[in-house]
Structures are given as C-alpha cells and as structure tokens.
Amino acid sequence: MYSRKRMTALSAAGMSAALLLTACGGGGEDLTGPADGEAGDNKEINIALIAWEEAIATTAMWEVILQELDYDVTVTDVDVAPMYQGAANGDVDLFLDTWLPITHSDYWEDYGDQLEDLGVWYDNAVLTITVPSYMEDVNSIADLTDHADELGGEIIGIDPGAGLTRVTKEEAMPGYGLDGDFELIESSTAAMLAELDSAIAEEEPIVVTLWRPHPAYAQYDLKDLEDPEGLMGDAEQIHAVGRDGFTEEYPELSEWIGDWEMSDDELASLEVLTVGEDVESPQDGARTWLSENPEFLERTLGEAAEGLEF
C-alpha cells in the first residue's frame, strides 16, 4: 500500500486471476468445507499472501500455528487484485492484510459484499517522519526548521513513486514550512534504511520517512515526530478477511482471528525475525517468535494454546 517498495522475494507480482485459480483449486481438489454431518473446522485452508512485510510476517505466523493444530495449510503468493478476485470467488479462504478505510477502499467497494471481515488486528498503520530518539530537541515535524543545518537540509526518503513520498513532499513539507530549507532525498527503502543504520551507528542526526508497521522500530530506538496538523494522514486499520462462508466453515479459527491483536512492539519484533535481510525462512522466524511470546498464544488461542510448542 501507499506504493511503497515491498519485499519481493516471495511475490508473484502481476499474477493473473487465472493463475491464482489454478494455484488454489488445481487438480479438482475440494476445499469447500467439511462434509455434511462433520463437526468442527474445515482443516484445509488456503491463505493468500501479498509480499508486504507485515503480511509475510503474520501469514508465516498463522501458517505454523495452524500446522501445529493439524490444519493442512496452503499459502498462495499473489498480487492485490487477483487476491480480492480469488477470495470473492471462493478460491482462497483467507487474507490477513486488508488496509481500511483508505488503502484498499476501492477493492472493498467492489468485493466487500462477497467477503467476511473477520476483525481488526492492528490499528496503527501510519505514515511517519521519524528521527532517532537521541535527537532530544526534535519532537515535532515543525521542529525540523530549527535543525536544518545539522541535518544537512535533507530528509531521507524512499521511492519517488511511493505515496509516502508524495504525502511528505506535497503535504507535510510545505505545510510545515520545510520546503525552503529541506530537500526530500528520493531513493529506495533499502537506501533509506542504510542511511538510517549508518547515522545511528555514529549517533549522528538524521530524519527519514517511514511507516508503521515496520521492523525498523524493533531494530532501532526511533521517535515518530508529532504531526499536529495531521498532514501525514490518519491511522488505518489492518483487517483479516475471509471468503463468504468462512465463519461457518471455520468457526474456531474465526474466533481465534477475532481475538487476534498485535501491538507495535509485537509486530515489529515478529517482522525482524521473518522479513529481515538475513531471514532464510519466515516460518522458522515465526516459530522462534512464538516460542518467545507464549502470552500472545494464550490470549489469542485460549485453551487451544495448551501444549503448543515452537
């Protein structure tokens, strides 16, 4: 969302709807639910994954949780439009990363009546302008005007085409009077993070564009600058979404997902283990995180968490 550069190693960007249907329903396998007379959840589930940081992290987490609970889990890498089409058609069961009310509003308008909103699990999805916490005198975006010299007149940004870049350049910088003293350096997410890492290692001043959720918040001690004019936009919510009939076919899982919430710290620390540069297996990283956060399992799964080991 926001056109920001995303993790692409797991992406099937541009996948057509036809390929999605083949990936999800090939071979004539019936994934439509339990046979008449059977009780409990359908134990076969197909989760759609768009290769965004928080989606990779949480999909890997639920994948290993459900595997431990004897579900047969398939994860289908897909792009945004085919994901919504496939879920609306009933060809995938679940998607964990719907941003509302803004980012996915067009898709929700087109397909929402064919889907089930299973609940909000994260409610602080925001665009930010951020500094290291050791910059004690900079607490608001407006404060940057007094520190232009020490910051070299630069705000380190990401991709030129990103929504975050547009909002920073067209809304926040002129709105707070920064456009005369600062230049937004447009590069890439990777380049921005490299600059941030280098500056923090030397405890030098730096200001960057960032967003929540992001693993950088677990890796560094950062401070989002206050935005009293609201020029960076309001926070969005991230929803889990199922295909039509999901709650009926997966009553227990629907309850777990309804109880699922993650804090900034929880999500950032999960992302570090599942989408960091050195991560080889998001699933292994998710298992490590779950082993270190048993209280998350207890509050999310209730009695079903008993005996689970990761």
TrEMBL record:
- Indicate whether Cell cycle appears among the record's keywords: no
* SUPFAM superfamilies recorded: Periplasmic binding protein-like II
Gene3D superfamilies per the record? Glycine betaine-binding periplasmic protein, domain 2, Periplasmic binding protein-like II
Predominant localisation class: membrane
Residue intervals of the ABC-type glycine betaine transport system substrate-binding domain: 43-292
Q: Does the keyword Thylakoid apply?
A: no
Q: Where is the protein situated, by its record's location annotation?
A: Cell membrane
InterPro entries reported for this sequence: ABC_Gly_betaine_transp_sub-bd (IPR007210)
Q: Which domain of life is it from?
A: Bacteria
**Residue span of the signal peptide, if any?**
1-23
Q: What is this protein called?
A: Glycine betaine ABC transporter substrate-binding protein
Species of the source: Nocardiopsis codii
Q: Which UniProt keywords apply?
A: Cell membrane, Membrane, Signal, Transport
Query: Pfam families of this UniProt entry?
Result: OpuAC
